[in-house]
Design brief:
The structure holds two protein chains of two kinds.
Chain A (H helix, E strand, L loop, with lengths): L3 E8 L8 H11 L5 E5 L4 E3 L3 H7 L6 E8 L2 H14 L8
Antiparallel strand pairs in A: 1-4, 2-3, 2-4
Chain B lengths: L2 H4 E7 L7 H14 L8 H14 L3 E3 L2 E2 L2 E3 L7 E11 L9 E9 L4 H15 L2 H9 L3 H13 L4
Parallel strand pairs in B: 1-5, 3-6, 4-6
Antiparallel strand pairs in B: 2-3, 5-6
The chains are: A alpha+beta, B alpha/beta.
Chain lengths: ~100, ~160
């Protein structure tokens, strides 16, 4: 199986930031993919499929995160996660 | 942010009387109220909102811990209460296991960044096996308070 690595930078756009509910949405989306997914802020690198670790990121509005997917569906994974974070804004963006 | 900056040391319950989720939440909110940490917000109102939030999605993230949390417009500061349940509580956790340590967090509405920083601090500690173990084993409020203060300075806790 091809080992693809994809990395993408996203910015948290919803005003309340990455609190627990968005973190759960992120983990739900990430878990749909076979690829390993890590998320890093300027301070931490965490497992994108662990709700406890994602909540620990506590990325505030405006924070930039790097999402790294590694595995057969890495392409689809980063696209889906970018969509969730920046386009849907965890379904709680304003405007 | 340090975890000791948000924990209300007057609202640490080393042995929760309730064995159910809603009762435990009410005990912790009551302790915050008694400690004068709720400002103008009423304990009944806060309990109701926390339980409602918990019904929407459990904050029991597994490994025996739960972190119920809300934002409320009666609050001026971010405050946390800590409760320990030796017998375990059903929190409808993600891993379906009982919860032995509950950290309740109440934040003002208008400072989402501070709320997140408090969550970050709490989860940074809850990630650690030693911290969870010591929290679960602490039998008095003083022991829990010491653990919280030490955890800020000691990354192995």
């Amino acid at each position: 199986m091809a080992k693809v690595v994809r990395e993408i930078e996203v910015q948290i756009k919803n005003p309340d930031g990455l609190h627990m509910r968005p973190a759960m949405q992120f983990v739900d989306t990430a878990s749909q993919f076979a690829s390993d997914i890590s998320v890093s802020s300027s301070e931490n690198v965490v497992d994108g499929k662990s709700i406890m670790q994602m909540t620990m990121l506590a990325a505030t509005h405006g924070t930039k995160l790097t999402i790294k997917a590694q595995g057969p569906d890495a392409d689809q994974a980063v696209v889906a996660l970018q969509q969730l974070v920046e386009v849907r804004q965890f379904d709680e963006g304003q405007g | 942010m340090k975890i000791s900056d948000v924990v209300c040391f007057g609202a640490i319950i080393p042995e929760l009387q309730s064995s159910d989720r809603d009762g435990a939440i009410k005990e912790l909110v009551g302790a915050l109220s008694k400690a004068g940490a709720l400002g103008k917000a009423s304990a009944d109102e806060i309990s109701k909102v926390v339980i409602k939030r918990e019904n929407e999605a459990s904050t029991g993230l597994g490994r025996g811990v739960a972190v119920p949390h809300i934002k409320h417009n009666g609050m001026k500061n971010v405050v946390a209460a800590i409760g320990r349940s030796p017998g375990g509580i059903d929190f409808a956790s993600l891993d379906k296991q009982p919860v032995y340590s509950v950290i309740l967090l109440i934040s003002p509405v208008d400072d989402p960044d501070k709320h997140l920083q408090a969550m970050e601090s709490i989860f940074k500690h809850l990630q650690r096996d030693n911290f969870r173990k010591f929290l679960r084993q602490s039998q008095t409020a003083d022991q829990i308070a010491d653990l919280i203060k030490e955890a800020d300075d000691n990354p192995t806790l």
